[in-house]
Amino acid sequence: MQKLKTPDLQLLHDTNAPESINAQDHPFAVQGLTVAYHHKPVLWGVSYSAPKGCLTAIIGPNGAGKSTFLKAALGLIPKLSGETKVFGAPIKKALKNIAYVPQRSAVDWDFPATAIDVVLMGLYGQIGWFRWPSRKHRETALNCLKSVGMQDFANRQIGQLSGGQQQRVFLARALAQDAEMYLMDEPFAGVDAATEKAIVMVLRKLVADGKTVLVVHHDLETVRDYYSHILLLNGQHIADGPVETTFTSENLQKAYGGRLASTQLDGLSQASGA
Amino acid sequence: MDIFLQFDLPSILLGSLAALACGLLGNFLVLRKQALMGDAISHVVLPGIVLGFLFSHETGSWPMMIGAGAAAIFAVLLIELIRRVGNVEPGAAMGVVFTTMFAAGVVVLEQSGTAGVHLDVEHALYGNLESAIWLDAYTLSDLWNLEVLATLPESIKQLFVVNLLVIAFIMLFFKELKISSFDPLLSASLGFSPKWLGLSLIVMVAIAAVAAFSAVGSILVIAMFICPAATARLLTDNLKVQLFISGIASLSAGLFGYLLAAFGPGLLGYEISVSAAGMIAVVAGLQQVLAMLFAPQYGVVMRRRRQKVHANI
C-alpha cells in the first residue's frame, strides 16, 4: 500500500502545481453541478467559471435553474454532484470571500431589526464570535447605506420599507461584507426605477474596484446596457462569454426555445449597434 | 409579615423566576417561528427528568437537568431524522416525537414507583408553586441576611442560577442568535452555524423548561415561552428592547399572577384560593391581549385611529 501511494501523491502534486497559479484567475469555478428537487432534475452537469473582475448576468427562461445554480454552487442547498472552487480553494473554506444577496422573499421582514441592524449583520464575520459591534462598525454600515442612497432610513424597521428599499438594504449588507465575489439573486425583481438605477451604479462600482459580480437577471432588454458577460442556462449550460459574441439570437433561441418570438430575438440581438 | 415571607414570597420568587427564564428564551423561539418547540421540549424532557430523578433520588436536582438536556438533544435529532427519512413536514415530526417521548416518560414514571412520592403526573402537568416555603424568614431584614438567604428552597436557588445562565447565554450569543434567526443562510456563510446555534438554544430551552417545570408545570411552561415574547414584540421594533420588555412582562406575570390567585378570591368573598400557576398564565395571556389592543404601533386601537385620520384626509 505504502509503495503504491507515493507515486500517486507525486502525480497529484504535479498536476496541481500549474492549476494553483491559474486559480487566481478563477474567483468562482463550478464543475459538473447537478441538482434535483424530489427526483426531478433541475440542473444537469453545469460547468462554468465566472470571468474575474467582470459583471455577468445569468439569464434563462423561468425554471431554468438560475437561482438553484447560485444556491447549489454555494452549497446552500443539497446537490447530487459537482463542486465549486473559489480561487482554487473548496467553497466551504472560502465562504467569507463571497457575498450572496438572496431574493427578498428569503427572509422575514417583520423581524425586529432596523435597516442599519441588517447591514451590520454583513460585518458580523469581521466582528467575530461573542463581540458586539462597535461605533466603527456602525459607521461602516452607515457608509454602506449611503452608497445605496438609504442613509435616511437607517433606523427604520425593515418591514416598513418599500420593496426597492429592502433590496437596497440587502445590497448595502453585501457591500459591508467587503467580499471578492458577489452573487445576487434577481436584485432587480419588482423594484422601482430609482432603486434599479442605484443598484446598477453599485454593481459598476464593484466591478471598477476589481470585484467579480454574478447576477441572476430577468429582463433581456437591459442585458446589453448593464452587463459585459452572460451565462445562458436552461437546465444545462447553453453558452457563456462576452455579451457581444454570446448574446446572439441563436443562443437565445437555444435557451428559450419557442418562448421568444423571432422578431423579439432579432430586436434584442441587434440592439448592440445603438 | 412573617407569613408573607414564609409562604407568599417563595412562591412569588419561584413563579417569577420560572417565567423570566422561559420568557427571555421565548423571544428567540418566537422569532424563529419555533414557538411550539417550547411546548414540545417541555414534554419531551419528562423521560429525561424521570431518569435523572431515578439516578439522584431528589427533585429539582442537577442530574434531572442533565437528563432533560440530553432528552432535548435526543428529541431534536429524532425530529430531524424523521423529517429527513420520512419526508414529512417539521410540525408532524415534532408531534410524533414529543407525544411519544412524553408518553414514555409517563410510563417510566408509573412503573418505577416514583409516582406519588415526589414526582407525580399531576404535578408534572400543573406545577406545585404553593409548596415553596421559607420557614427561616421572619423579618424583612432577613432578605439581605446571607445566612437566612441560604435557607431558601433549593428550587428557587436553582432557578436563580438558571436565570443567570440564560442571561449570560443571551448576552454572549446575542448577535449570533439574531443573525441565525433572521437569515440562516448568511449566518452559515459567515461561519455562525445556524444548526449549532439552534441546538444550543434548544438545550437552554430544555434547561429553562425543567427548572420552570416544578414551579408552573409543563403545560403552563408553553405560556411563559410564548406570551411575554409575543407581548413585547408588539411594543417595540428593537430586539434588545424587546428582550427587556419581555423580561418585565414575565416577572410581573409571576408577581401579579400569584397575588391574584392567593388574594383575589378572598377579595371577592370566597374562602378559597385558585391555582397560582394557572393564574400566572392567565395574566401572561391578559398582557398579550392588552398589547394587541393598545400597543402604540401595532395595537388595534391605534391602527383604527390612524386609518380614520387617513380617511379624513
TrEMBL record, chain A:
It comes from the Bacteria. GO terms for molecular function: ATP binding; ATP hydrolysis activity. Coiled coil: none annotated. One of its GO terms (biological process) is zinc ion transport. Its EC number is 3.6.3.-. SMART domains: AAA. Signal peptide: none annotated. InterPro entries: AAA+_ATPase (IPR003593), ABC_transporter-like_ATP-bd (IPR003439), ABC_transporter-like_CS (IPR017871), Metal_Ion_Import_ABC (IPR050153), P-loop_NTPase (IPR027417). Residues 28-260 form the ABC transporter domain. Keywords: ATP-binding, Hydrolase, Ion transport, Nucleotide-binding, Transport, Zinc, Zinc transport. It holds the Pfam family ABC_tran. Belongs to the ABC transporter superfamily. PANTHER family: IRON TRANSPORT SYSTEM ATP-BINDING PROTEIN HI_0361-RELATED (PTHR42734:SF5), METAL TRANSPORT SYSTEM ATP-BINDING PROTEIN TM_0124-RELATED (PTHR42734). This is High-affinity zinc uptake system ATP-binding protein ZnuC. It comes from Pseudovibrio axinellae.
UniProtKB/TrEMBL annotation, chain B:
This is Manganese transport system membrane protein MntB. One of its GO terms (cellular component) is ATP-binding cassette (ABC) transporter complex. It is found in: Cell membrane. The chain crosses the membrane at residues 12-31, 36-55, 61-79, 91-109, 156-174, 195-213, 243-264, 276-296. The gene is mntB_2. Its main location: membrane. GO terms for biological process: response to zinc ion; transmembrane transport. Coiled coil: none annotated.
